[in-house]
Amino acid sequence: MSYRLENPAALWLLIALMPLMFLAWRGRAQKGRFGLPYAFFTLLGFTCCVVALARPQGGRYSTTQRALKGDLYLAVDVSNSMRAQDLSPSRLEFAALFGQKVLSQIPGVRVALFPFAADGYLQMPVSLDHEAVSDLLLSLSPSFTTNQGTDFGTSLATLLTTIQRKNAIETAPARVLLFSDGETHDSLSDSVLSKYRSLQIPIDTVGVGSAQGASIPMPDRSGFGMESLRDSSGKKVLTKLVPDSLVKMSQATGGNYYQPKLAESGAIAQRILQGMAFGKLQTTFKLEREYFPALFIAGLSFLSATFLMGQWHLFVRCLLMALTFASHIASAKSPSVGFDQYNAALRLVEEGKQQEAADLFHESASQATHDELKKKALYNLGNTLLRLQDPAQAVSAYQRAYDIALTNKQTEKALNDSLSNNILVARKQQQEQEAQQKEQQEGEGEGDKPKAASDPGKAKSFEGQTFSESQKKRLFEAVSNEEQQILQKLQNRNSKPSKEMRAQQW
Question: Of 124, 305, 422, 444, which is most buried with the most CB atoms under 10 A?
Fold first, then answer.
């Protein structure tokens, strides 16, 4: 059985015992005006009444898991520029496959689909049926809308109205994951983005396309072949990735911008879960026994003894005080201070469930009122994020923990020394990740360059080739398998910290 005080603030009333003890000592010095027997029963009765006011309880703590109630809105650009094939098999199909990969890593999150161009519409409302959303993603096409030309302002305003209409019925944290090449015919309004910011709806953006750009294949007049889209002068229209508008969108709403790499799906999924998993585990106290009635009876009994000893006026005064205390017993439960979440997170770390542990450490740090608990929860949150290969967020957690001052300076110094070491480890890991990403980007850039012909005098001419759906699928599977192998190598390399620098555990 576990024990707790529902109203621990009442114990501050024990400070009133000090003047009573002073009166007892003074009465003894004056030979019996407030002697030891009277002082003993008065102090004991007063103490019982105060402890009863704190309302001690017996029961058991239980932790239950609740389904996530976060809503993710997948906004996908279906304008004609998404037909470009600078990403295999095409920008739109790459976005659909990217979205499918994210969905496979966020179980429990409700998802909605919102295709857009000049404007958008809710093709599928929020649902836990990820399989249905995946099927709809693959079926997206520019033919879904006749009003071409991307307009982020109008589309985001329509999406915001949809989210607000849904939240008017059931409030839930919302997040937007937007796929686009960034090309727009109208400037993005800051007023729309400020509304997303004020409602705490972050927009994560994924730039779909390349800086080199590509032509836009369109069905020819016969309807059986494809030809490049041309402008009024007959020149081929070249479409490129324009990340500026996407970066602005994400920064203004508290989201993040991601490169068009399938390896980024894990980081996106982790960010979505962190933003929507609050309250995932709920700890409740099952009340089995109340002790305050017995304590009140005992307190009144001790105070009654003073009446039998001739101090009836003291008995009346203490009785009135006890009745006043009893009338103000707090009915509200004491706020959770995060200890249960912290201990549960430590157990999850031992079981190897790092993501669940990170969620509980975050919840413990958010709820804790005790500075030492908050500092340790943030410390262990940083360690857990470091194991999850997220050094940037780990550094943020470490720095927040470092800024918390403790009354016990020895404990604070020990924690800060470990935090300083772990910050160095996290920053080094972050630099290694950035260097690897840079090398990978440079390698991909070199791979995109055309090779010189074997015979300079005989330049080869290449004709455009149209791939069938089965050929596109095989090409994508080959690229996906290669990226998975590279990602696995990077994870294996990052999972081996150097001997001279290891993240210390607390």
Answer: 422
Sheet strand arrangement including 110-116: 124-127, 110-116, 71-77, 174-180, 203-207, 257-258
Q: What is the DSSP letter of 66?
A: -
Phi, psi of 205 (to 5 degrees): -120, 145
Considering the entire predicted model, what is its pTM?
A: 0.45
Helix (H/G/I), strand (E/B), else coil: 71 = strand
Give the C-alpha separation, 297 to 45, whole Å: 9
Task: Tell me if 431 sits within 8 A of 469, measured CB to CB.
Answer: no
Per the DSSP assignment, residues forming a β-bridge with 116 are: 77, 120
Cα–Cα distances in Å, from 460 out to 51, 86, 228, 449, 454?
A: 93, 21, 21, 16, 9
What are the two backbone dihedrals, phi and then psi, of residue 238, each rounded to the nearest 5 degrees? -105, 125
Report the C-alpha gap between 487 and 491 in whole angstroms.
Answer: 6
The CA angle 473-476-480, to the nearest 5 degrees, is 135
Q: Which helix (H) or strand (E) holds 485?
A: helix 469-494
User: What residues are paired with 5 via a beta bridge?
Assistant: 56
Cis check for the bond before 125: say yes or no (omega within 30 of 0): no
DSSP string across 296-336:
HHHHHHHHHHHHHTT-HHHHHHHHHHHHHHHHT---SPPPP
Give the mean pLDDT per block of 10 residues along the chain (506 residues): 81 77 61 62 81 83 58 91 88 92 87 89 86 89 74 89 76 86 80 89 92 83 73 81 90 90 88 65 67 82 69 59 55 52 85 84 79 86 86 84 83 84 84 78 55 38 44 58 62 49 46
Please check whether residue 234 is in contact with residue 205, taking contact to mean a CB–CB distance below 8 angstroms: no
Q: Please tell me the distance from the alpha carbon of residue 184 to that of residue 169, in angstroms, as a whole number.
A: 33
Hey, what are 77's tokens? Answer: 């650009």
Q: 3-class DSSP state for residue 405? A: coil
Q: What tens digit of pLDDT does each residue of 169-223 get?
A: 566 778 999 999 888 877 777 888 999 988 889 999 999 998 888 888 887 776 6
Measured between alpha carbons, how far is residue 262 from residues 98, 144, 350, 483 in Å? 6, 25, 30, 7
String of DSSP letters for 256-272? -EE-S-GGGHHHHHHHH
Helices 371-387 and 354-367: angle between axes, nearest 10 degrees: 160
Closest among 9, 17, 138 to 74, alpha carbons compared = 138
Phi and psi torsions of 224, nearest 5°: -105, -20
Backbone angles phi, psi at 218, to 5 degrees: -130, 150
How many other C-beta atoms lie within 10 A of the C-beta of residue 203? 26
| Angle made by CA atoms 36, 40, 46, in degrees to the nearest 5 | 140
